[in-house]
Amino acid sequence: MKKDVIVLNCGSSSVKFAIINAETGEAGLSGIAESLGNQDASLSYKIDGKKNTLALPEKAGHTEALNAIQSVIAQTGVVPIAIGHRVVHGGEKFKQAALVDETVLAAIEEYASMAPLHNMANLKGITTAQEAYPNLPHVAVFDTSFFQTMPKKAFVYALPMPLYKEHGIRRYGFHGTSHKFILDSTAAQLNKSVEDTSIISAHLGNGCSVSAIEKGQAVDTSLGFTPLEGLVMGTRCGDLDPSLPGTLQQKLGKTAEEINDLLNKQSGLLGISELSNDCRTLEEAALNGHEGALLAIEIFCYRLAKYISGYMIAVPTLDAIVFTGGIGENSSLIRETTMGYFKHFGVAIDEQRNLDARFGNAGEISAPSSSTKVLVVPTNEEWVIAAQAAQFA
Ligand code: ADP
């Protein structure tokens, strides 16, 4: 029997969807409904490699988008066995995926105070999909669950303890499904059991995070209470002096919300380069000597290298440093520059292997003499969500 699972990722103005075979990870259908709530709302999808686009009614919202997605799914003739929903925040309650019921819905709503845009959109996706598919198991798969194994020394901030105990202010970590996939995939490549595999994984996309995983368990990660802490990202600033938001509010005469917007949407690669948040554009500009692009790439790699080296103390049995995400899977420049900081640790990148591991090719990029293996492993978050949802079918 084919184990086809519908995977839904409902964001504030978009819905990403796919039908994934939970056993092989193959996507029979994948697509996105975008610009929801705007004049130009649209739906584009790929069935067996063929692209299609549909206009949605003007200002179509999540309900209209999910109705249209349901008809596209019906056209495929696939009989899904479950629906896996990506949910950003599962607080401390969800250490693994959960079958959606009233209690789970209430908890997702409760955690919306910590990820307002994301969790409310995820919730809307679940309740709308429940109406469309009342007889299928709906499973919530949380971005935060994988990091629930972190010890207190990694997740407690140096703030007054009641802020953690009474308000849940702590590091949660995000991109958990991706780091979990990278762990499982690396273990398979190294011919080891997951429980015996230790890696530092760098997920570098528009959002970026590094995780320290010791013997199959997450022990630290760079994203924090929200997905703003840690590395330089496309438009997010990552680590800052914590006094800065207040200072910026005063200096620029802006509200806390406006500063939050500045740190999340106008900073990172875009802010430094004054050109783009897109790594490809920056690499091209850097080749032409664009100073902002050169500086943005330099800071991105330096900060990433600092995190990876920091996590070496958290992963004493390190098997491999692994790159993934759009940048990690494709940018030989970012990988080479970052790993260049580790020459005096005996880490050596093989130039040709690094150039070969792009555009869908993956594998080991370290030289045989390297003290630590460095790998490129393409991520597949949808597969993790599908596999976890299938367990409830
Ligand atoms: P998201 O976090 O939205 O899933 P992706 O994982 O798709 O994002 O990563 C997007 C990033 O990957 C962008 O910065 C893009 O420029 C970068 N990227 C994609 N292909 C390349 C490439 N060939 N070289 C450098 N960067 C690339």
Description of the structure:
The protein is α/β, with parallel strands linked by helices and 393 residues long. Helix content is 39%, strand content 19%. The chain has helices at 62-76, 102-110, 116-132, 152-155, 161-167, 176-189, 244-252, 256-265, 268-273, 279-287, 291-311, 325-330, 332-340, 351-356, 381-390; strands spanning 4-10, 15-21, 27-34, 42-47, 50-55, 82-87, 98-99, 138-142, 199-204, 208-214, 217-221, 320-324, 363-364, 373-376. The radius of gyration is 21 Å and the shape is globular. The protein binds adenosine-5'-diphosphate. Adenosine-5'-diphosphate is lined by residues 205-207, 234, 278-280, 283, 325-327, 330-331.
Shape: globular
Write down how many β-strands occur, each being a DSSP E stretch of 2 or more residues: 14
- Largest sheet properties: 8 strands, mixed
Number of domains: 2
| Overall average residue pLDDT | 95
Q: What's the arrangement of strands in the largest beta sheet? A: 5-4-3-2-1-6-8-7
Q: Element order, helices and strands?
A: EEEEEHEEHHEHHHEEEHHHHHEHHHEEH
CATH fold description of the largest domain: Nucleotidyltransferase, domain 5
Instruction: Classify the helix fraction into a percent range.
Output: 25-40%
Low-confidence stretches: none
CATH architecture of the largest domain: 2-Layer Sandwich
Structural class: alpha/beta
Calculate Rg over CA atoms. Answer: 21 Å
